[in-house]
Design brief:
Two copies of one chain form a homodimer. The first copy, chain A, has a six-stranded parallel sheet with strand order 3-2-1-4-5-6, covered by helices on one side. The first copy, chain A, is α/β, with parallel strands linked by helices and 192 residues long. In chain A, helix 1 packs across helix 2. In chain A, strand 2, helix 4 and strand 3 form a beta-alpha-beta unit. Chain A folds into two domains: 135 residues, HAD superfamily/HAD-like (Rossmann fold), CATH 3.40.50; 45 residues, Ribonucleotide Reductase Protein R1, domain 1. The longest helix of chain A has 17 residues.
Amino acid sequence: MVLIDQDGVIADFERGLLDTFRAKHPDAPFVALADRRGFYAREQYGPAWGEAINEIIRTEGFYRDLLAIEGAPAALEEMLKVGHDVFLCTSQLVSSRWCVPEKLDWVEHHLGGAWLRRTVITPDKTLVGDRLQPCVLIDDRPTVTGVASPPWTHVLFDAPYNKEERGPRLSSWADWREVLEPVFAAQRRQDR
Amino acid sequence: MVLIDQDGVIADFERGLLDTFRAKHPDAPFVALADRRGFYAREQYGPAWGEAINEIIRTEGFYRDLLAIEGAPAALEEMLKVGHDVFLCTSQLVSSRWCVPEKLDWVEHHLGGAWLRRTVITPDKTLVGDRLQPCVLIDDRPTVTGVASPPWTHVLFDAPYNKEERGPRLSSWADWREVLEPVFAAQRRQDR
């Protein structure tokens, strides 16, 4: 089973945020994508510009208009074709009324309506998965925690702000087979 | 851990559907709540009126305006207070653009904004839960299936259309302790 985060993994959150920030605040200092550190951009932008970041991600259209990350839609279809159970597994920004409906619109537009039946929206990703089969979560967040003991192995989707983390890492969607296969094989050896 | 379905368990879907149907089609035959059979009302309403049912549940405001089922909000707060991990676990009607945002509005209005951080929206409930602790899903659907082997025991929330099903059953929110405790105890004996 493959669980796949949305922002920063299939939807280009950081690119959308930076482009919108520079368009809205052309004279403000900004953080280039390669220099992003820490999961939350608002923290790196600090007290002077953090609130401007918060405002952007709560604006109508922000989630809807994110670009797809290169290769993601094709990789997801390939995974289905070879027989994986594939689900999107994304959290909502509770402080934005646009976040959830626009994430679903995004899925329908970029992946097709059938993927709405493969989209899980959850505040806690440790609740989601299947302990009885090999299971991974592909997520750019450095550490994914919650109330349960997760049934998945976390595969990091490569980002400038998660370079310090250890563990399996997917740097390009073109490599998904090579990265996931050894993770699944290790789980099978543990005879889950 | 307690997972709780939304429609028919905490939100009175059947009452909302019947009231709306009778208001919109005052001369049509209708099915009294006690006579509902089968999980899907549209099927019981048959070819003549099934499409009218479909139309109602896809209308703006339908999910938002459902009444709370008696005792549900209080029971959910009690469960939290005694230390259970409690999450709403609901599916979306993919054919309605109003369903998901209005379900979230409903949660915020009837349970409070903090419950948005306890709301999981999933097309497949067998993916959700925690196999490493006692775990139940309270759901009115006669059988809950999906791609995974569910980590929960299904506790039926009593409804006229699920009387035939066997297994633990919650008939009133006032009884939640008495119904859940033996289920948790049985799971603990299985040393999960």
